[in-house]
Amino acid sequence: MGQAAYTGGTVALRLPLPSRVPSLAREVALPHTPRLLRVGPRLFLTTLGAFLVLGLPVAGLVSQGVYDGIHRSFAERSLRESRLVATLPPVVAALSGNAAERANLNALMNRYRDQLGADYVVVTDRDARRLTHPNPAQVGQRMQGGDFTAFLRGRSVTETVQGTLGRSVRSKVPIVDGAGRVLGLASVGFLLPRLRDVFLDVLRAGLPWYLLALALALALALGVARRVKTEMLGLEPEQIAGGLRQYRAVLNTLEEGVLVARAGQVFVMNPQARALLGTPDAALPLPWPPGLPLPVPGAGPVTAEVAGRPVLLAAQEAGEGAVVVTLRDLARVRALADELTQSQRYAELLRAQTHEFTNRLHTLAGLLHLGETREALALIHAQSARHEAHLQAVGALRHVRLSALLLGKFDRAAERGVTLTLDPLSALPGTLPPGVLDLLELAAGNLIENALEAASGTPDAEVCVLIATDPEGLILEVRDTGPGVPPALADTLTVRGVSSKGTGRGVGLALVSDRAQALGAALSHDRVSAHGRDWTRFTLDVPLPEAEE
Questions:
Q1: pLDDT digits over 36-58, tens only?
Q2: Where exactly are the transmembrane stretches of this chain (predicted)?
Q3: How far apart are CA 447 and CA 85, in angstroms?
Q4: Does the global pTM surpass 0.70?
Q5: Which of 8, 78, 149, 371 has a Cα at 20 to 30 A from 204?
Q6: Distances (CA, A) of 33 to 30, 36, 39
Q7: What gap in Å lies between CA 198 and CA 430, rounded to an integer?
Q8: In DSSP terms, which residues pair with 120 in a beta bridge?
């Protein structure tokens, strides 16, 4: 059984995980999931693909960052060292006309270049002709690339150019004498590495760490996949979605409302239940509706009233602390019970007719076997005359189903030894308002059957029926010579389950009373005396918009 933890009015349930895949596959046809689309392989391949797709762009971004850092560092060093070279006395003296210093200047700058770790140190005159260069063949040549006007104005510049030694970062700093005259320029340069080389260096340095992170991510993906599959009861997402759609289709097409409750909260509610409870848009879970009783599982249905409508509730255990509650519209249940009662009545009438017809056939067969043909003919004529009289008696009712019901009741009365008569004043109009004919059939079937049972076994048992219209509407009157209604039941006779015939009865009059109230009719009973006998009389008065004769 699961355990429930309450948090701020909601319920967080911790249910035990099953040890194997449940029997859902035996209840619902689940879709097949290819191996590569299952949770484990899908998560593994997704993680691997993400690392492969993101690896190269990340390495490229890191390489570009490293390259930009190298460029900034070389630019700062170039400017700083170029300013230092421009202030060296041998350099100023060589450009001021000292021939000895000028002759030794290239060798001095090469030694200085080695100490600085620069790729070249170039000193030029005002015409930008080199006085020093790592390659002696370039001495005397004009310096290439960049701005050669700023240093003449006493300004220093740092630039990235393609020189004779390759792409480099260099600064051009003016060399001035004591009088402030520009004698030439000093430039210290650093060759830039190729971005591809930086990228390869980054890859070589980061590849072990990248592979280690990839292995950890893949191991974590497999662990998460196993955990997720365990939480999903060993099923794939498509299978869970397919099963959910099937169960939802079943729940939504049921005529009854269905609730699944656990720990005082409603977690499942189909549209029929929402319509009955008046919660069409409420989000689940919901607290159990206040005022609505929660039936004890397996203890039988209980009745309640929801929004002025009577409903029937029943509950069953569903395991893991869940209870499935079904809600049925009590009016619909009663209508179904009414239809079932009518069907049972018709079945009884058919059985009575069959029994009566079988007895007559046996009698005729015996008479013919004895050679009493005249007596057999007399019996046939008498039976025919009786049926003809019954047909004439019900002809004025003008409604086939009601007439058929009364014909069956004549045979039922004969079987019970009761004389059933239809008052000659019985007559009905050709059309009746909706529902009135159904009420007449229900009431006549139940009241006549009850009268036959009450009168059966009494001396000269008799039941009289009147179905007619009067100035106030329509009247159905059933009288019997039975002992009458016990005084203790007089006030509760139309309550469901109340009957003088023992337990398991007391449905028919309750159905008649409910249907009569719905149409504004009234059902009553009393005790009257007529023709020197005491009768029990049940009367149904049905108002009509316009009473017809």
A1: 566 667 777 777 777 777 777 77
A2: 43-62, 207-225
A3: 129
A4: no
A5: 78
A6: 9, 8, 10
A7: 105
A8: 189
